[in-house]
Amino acid sequence: MVEHTAYASREAFDARLAEVIDAHAPALVVLAGFMRILTPGFVARYAGRLVNIHPSLLPAFPGLHTHQRAIDAGCRFAGCTVHQVTAELDIGPIVDQAVVPILPGDSARLLAARVLTQEHVIYPRAVAQVVSTL
User: What's the CA gap between 16 and 12, in Å, rounded?
Assistant: First the structure.
């Protein structure tokens, strides 16, 4: 594990993270719950081989607090997106998505739990799809 707090800059953290990743020579780098913005250099190093899952139907609600933002916006549906990581936050090409309804009386916590069940369905499917094209 590479702890980001041990590094003085994002660049230093990303450099060490790349060393650890490269030691395993992966075909694909899969982010889940990572919650760190990666530097453009890191993203470029793994271009086309770096995927992330995001708890919204991108391009809607990039960034944080996605479930509450969807509820506050009056959306009838929410979901999750697997996308290729680019240097710009949460806008890379979409690999797969899943949709869930926003129910009357939903809280962010309840919606998040329903979305998470779909994340577990689409992420393995999306990873298999990306790996099959490498």
Answer: 6
